[in-house]
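Workshop exercise sheet. Pairs work together: one partner reads the sequence aloud, the other fills in the structure field after running the prediction. Swap roles for the next sheet.
Pair: D.N. / O.F.
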Amino acid sequence: MLTSLPNLLTLSRIFAVPLLVFMLWGPTWIGSLGAFALFCVAGITDYIDGYLARAQGTVSKLGQFLDPIADKIMVAAVIIMLVAERVISGVHVIAAIIILLREIAVSGLREFLAGVKVSVPVSRLAKWKTAFQMIALGALILEGAARFQFSWLPAHEVGLLCLWLAAAMTAITGYDYLRVGIRHMS
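Structure field:
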């Protein structure tokens, strides 16, 4: 059911992406702070929608379908904007590409495995990967405000460090998913 609160929260994350992109486009310190706040709210709603769906017993196929899509759309949009605005540049783009490639590959793999009725649970390392990825992206979004107004914040350094940690965990968990998937492809 589309109008359940968990599904509405998930949809709100999808609909927030254009506003987030707008705020990151040619960032000002106010735009960066607004984008950071919106990104944090989106992260909180990601947690709340799953919690509510389980607590209320309203877990739906639509929610299970939309939730990972909402996450991937937001992550991809933020990474693309941070690269476009040169917040992520040089060798650090490799970490961003690793994250994007894994997201695409795992999405395709999950779709294939669902077709053969195989479920791949999210590992503890994948949850840590997500946490470091969100910290990295949040810090790099905040870097726009730090650059202009709050120069004492080490947002860029923290963001890049967490981005590389997330990329390393991304490679490991991506390999784990692929290994499971290959067993079911033959």
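Discussion prompt: Residues 5-183 form a domain with the Four Helix Bundle (Hemerythrin (Met), subunit A) fold (CATH 1.20.120.1760). What would you look at next?
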